[in-house]
# Entry
Amino acid sequence: MKRYLGLAIRAGEIIFGLDNIIGSKKRPYAIVIDESLHESSMQKIRNYCAKHNVPFVQVLNLEDMVSKIGVKIIGVTNKNLAEQIVNRKEK
# Structure
């Protein structure tokens, strides 16, 4: 999954942060959440995902995967990369 996240970042197909995801005009096709995300933020993103029918996956150490400090949630705006990320997590 780290490889696909890296590709998405280099392609500019990532939205960083809860507020940016919720307020973005560009809809994410998948959301990746760090397991340490606070429960109130987790509930907000679950509601967003349910409302917009967006799949989400939880991972350990999202910061390390994207090589950015403080990142707890990202949205992937490329449909093909989002599908690969969700499929890789399900295996």
User: Anything to note?
Assistant: The longest helix spans residues 39-52. The first strand starts at residue 14 and ends at 16. The mean pLDDT is 91.
